[in-house]
Amino acid sequence: MNRPLIKEYSFSGEEYDELRRIIGDRVGIALSDGKRDLVYSRVSRRLRARGLSSFAEYLALLRRGDEEELAELVNAMTTNVTQFFREAHHFEYLMSRMLPEVIGEGSRDKVIRIWSAGCSSGEEPYSIAIVLAEFLDRHPGWKGEVWATDVDGAILRQAEEGVYSIDRLKQVSRDRLRRFFLKGSGPNEGKARVGKTLRDLVQFERVNLIEKWPVRNRFDAIFCRNVIIYFDRSHKGQVVEGFSEHLRPVGHLFLGHSESLHGLTNRYRLIGQTIYRLR
């Protein structure tokens, strides 16, 4: 006979409501009533790590403005599911359509800039960098920059390290593996590390999309895939409107397969499968 699960900590509805308000205010993630068990599972780890005996104590810690713990809470609640060349049609469009158009524009500073917003453990920005490196090989005199950002500091450190198990590189061709990755040996057997060519193209930085962005340049494209799906409607609109202010006049916005701009903004037009362009 199955026994009912006995939870380690009590977790009242009021405590859940306060936690999801804090999470919503901090990073814009909208948590429904159905996410209560998920929040319990992830945040209870923080209680253990801090040696706390209740959610009430944890909330008191957050109310006191403990910035380190607020950052840990964000890390705990951020979903990081990604892979190399996920939604492959985006990278095919980047190589065959968008990048040639950028080159064809002519008068500009000859730097192609792409923002990977919500870069998670790095697979997306490194995939972009692979395409960019291959394209730049055929266009001497041009340079490329990928700005990779995420709200989760821990996952950013992992992305900067750029070490992946071989089974996470299944979507990377053999030729690309040979050119852009260093194969591990000894204690690193079964792993590969991103090589210098890609590292030189990608810069990582912690950015919270619902706070002020330290943007220094306009971008030719912004990849923000499977990120705004977690935001409430207000923050979704705020973010995509903000992107429009930091794109070049013919800039592109790439969203995730289940995301849409319908009803959020009129600044873009749909030109492909979850590919948008400024009007």
UniProtKB/TrEMBL annotation:
<keyword id="KW-0949">S-adenosyl-L-methionine</keyword>
<dbReference type="InterPro" id="IPR000780">
    <property type="entry name" value="CheR_MeTrfase"/>
</dbReference>
<feature type="domain" description="CheR-type methyltransferase">
    <location>
        <begin position="4"/>
        <end position="279"/>
    </location>
</feature>
<dbReference type="Pfam" id="PF03705">
    <property type="entry name" value="CheR_N"/>
</dbReference>
<dbReference type="InterPro" id="IPR050903">
    <property type="entry name" value="Bact_Chemotaxis_MeTrfase"/>
</dbReference>
<dbReference type="InterPro" id="IPR022642">
    <property type="entry name" value="CheR_C"/>
</dbReference>
<dbReference type="InterPro" id="IPR026024">
    <property type="entry name" value="Chemotaxis_MeTrfase_CheR"/>
</dbReference>
<keyword id="KW-0489">Methyltransferase</keyword>
<dbReference type="InterPro" id="IPR029063">
    <property type="entry name" value="SAM-dependent_MTases_sf"/>
</dbReference>
<dbReference type="Pfam" id="PF01739">
    <property type="entry name" value="CheR"/>
</dbReference>
<dbReference type="InterPro" id="IPR022641">
    <property type="entry name" value="CheR_N"/>
</dbReference>
<dbReference type="InterPro" id="IPR036804">
    <property type="entry name" value="CheR_N_sf"/>
</dbReference>
<protein>
    <recommendedName>
        <fullName>Chemotaxis protein methyltransferase</fullName>
        <ecNumber>2.1.1.80</ecNumber>
    </recommendedName>
</protein>
<comment type="function">
    <text>Methylation of the membrane-bound methyl-accepting chemotaxis proteins (MCP) to form gamma-glutamyl methyl ester residues in MCP.</text>
</comment>
<keyword id="KW-0808">Transferase</keyword>
